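[Q] Does anyone have a clean structure-token version of this?
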Amino acid sequence: MNLYPLSSLFFYRLIFTAWLLLGEVMFLIHMKRKNRFFLRVIVALVVCFGFALAFPIPFGNAFYSMIMFFSIFIVSYLMLLFCFRTDWKTLLFVALCGYTTEHIGYEVYQGIFNLINASTNSAVTGLYNNDTLLLFSSPVEMAVYFSSYVVIYWLVFILCGIKVNGEEGSGVNKGLTLGLGGLFLVIDIVFSSVISFYSTIHYDGYYLCFLSLINVACCIAALFGLFQLFYKNSITKNLEVVNELRREEQAQYEINKQTIDMINTKCHDLKYQIRQMGNQTSLAPEVVESMAKAISIYDSSMKTGNNALDIVLTQKSLFCSQHHIKFNCIADGAALSFISEPDTYSLFGNIIDNAIEAIKNIDSQKRLITLRIKQKGNLVSVSSQNWYEGEINFKDGFPVTKKEDARYHGFGLKSIGIICEKYHGLLSMDASNHTFTISILFTHPEPNEKKEA
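[A] Here you go.
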């Protein structure tokens, strides 16, 4: 028995491997790479194509080919694990998407050419044929084949591939992931093999074209469902992180509130005692005043008419003072009365923290944060500006973090967005002329008629 006959199937498995790897690559743009990545890629390519070339093909029937394609898929997935640091479920998601993309391209080619070839009653079997070297029966078939793949791959990349950010599979149930994987392989491999086997027994171009269209529809629906599930999980996980941060911020707010109240009380008592001591001793008045001013720096100097805003502004202004950051604030805290105290603390804490993060390591002359809160009629506007260096890219209206571990950064801005949505506010962010601006517009449920006048 000849295990490696020179046939169309002998060469097609290499073409299949190339399309499969290309389909997977489209979803790997934002994945975390392992050390010596390019060396690993070379090894992975050698392993994948070497395995495809070494796989014996004593039989040319569709069901044996199904085993071969499944084995090549498994090897490609193992090589993804070898090259990338991303969660195994996310990489399985990528591998399934890549295989499904390849399969959609193949079924589109089959459907179109079976429709063209329906009147001749000759099946399209060249790619699976173990008896001939001809991959394609004519230049038309070759053109249909490559055109189908190029168009499908381009569409999938534009619509799906560039949106994968590397977090899709994390947190998804292991059993569900494996179950989906099995379902996809049934659609991608088994269904296709049954159709190919049927076509060698009884060829009907129109019928097979219809089956190919059904297969394409199933693949698209399955791909859409997979994206929905994995992205829904990613969104849910992000919300859990944001909510956990919000709970920590609320606890921190209560602690800071108590701390600042205690400091204010102690500062007030100390200033009173110093003045009493100055009256009872021979200390010069200017010395007494100097000591009182030294203590006043720890007193709450922010009085905006909003207790939560006073606390966060006091806390951040002290931090800015210690790190040589100029903090300008003009705030009508009473305008924020419709926002709960924990949400106020979280909203402005994250706004100022984001600005501090941007300027804390740049030239001291550019360390300036400006915050304005004002009300006119029933409209309350919030504006924050700070200098930044480098470039800021936006995705879905939010800046994309430049930190290596992006999964645990950027939630402060997401928290800002959640609070704005909660109070029906309009949030916009802009980065131009090295100035980053956060603008928020709320509608106050109870307009202040006096301010409007």
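[Q] Thanks! Anything notable?
[A] Strands lie at 326-331, 368-376, 379-387, 394-395, 398-399, 426-432, 435-443.
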